[in-house]
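Morning run. Coffee first, then this:
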Amino acid sequence: MGELDFSTFLTIMHRQMQQEDPKTEILEALRMTDKQKKGYILASELRTKLTGLGEKLTDKEVDELFKEANVGRDGLVHYEEFTRMVTLPPVDY
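And here it is:
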């Protein structure tokens, strides 16, 4: 797989919102950003992309997303776990 620019990443993320299986699309987008194929990307890298490009999130929104997705203290986003967590049905309290 080649390198993924963020514009393409956003396009993939947008498409996943309109499809029946968002897990596959999110997972593929994250895999494409993992240039060394380690199974994770740096949380700081994902934060920079989410707050600086496309439809920007605030730092607070990213903090909440990372908290909900259990992004580890090691600063790594293990994309299979991240994808599973962000695609869980919302909890109704």
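The mean pLDDT is 81. Good start to the day.
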